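Example is below:
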Amino acid sequence: MATLEDGVPPDQTVGPGGELLENPRRRDYLTYAAVSVAAVGAGVVVLPLVNSMNPSADVLAQSSTEIDLSAIEPGQAIKTSFRKQPLFVRNLTPAEIAEADKVPVSSLRDPQTLEQRTKEGKTNWLITLGVCTHLGCVPLGAGEGENRGPFGGYFCPCHGSAYDTAGRIRQGPAPTNLQVPEYEFTSDTVVVVG
């Protein structure tokens, strides 16, 4: 039977019957510390390896998306993606174009005409990023039956920003119009974005 006078090693304690017991708390602490260090070490090794498999910034900057417009009827819109962001492509009807043109540009928060937001001779094709300029939500209005808001364009359900048929901000907290990416028509029915 061990007593306190016999001296107890630091990794042991004296039990109720005077027997020497291993100190379980110290062993658990060492186990947790070793596992934590191993996890951090694995993260330090694996994360750069996984990140090296992603395309670099210069490759992403040169990426482009080709879209076939032949199946999009007037009044329809499609959602696709461009550089990991939603992209809206909308074939405006003559009525939607007329509605966008009759709005006084001076009354807009971010003044732009429909002609400035589309290509010459292709004012019926509105191509915008599908990202609300307020906090980055994806607005509704590109899908069939989705709420297009009070101005018939796009409606952001997060904070109520409403865009008109030209993708211009008309109501709500968004500071600017939906962004128009760089694009060009390679034929009458094919556009390359980026």
Observations:
- The radius of gyration is 31 Å.
- Residues 24-51 form the longest helix (28 residues).
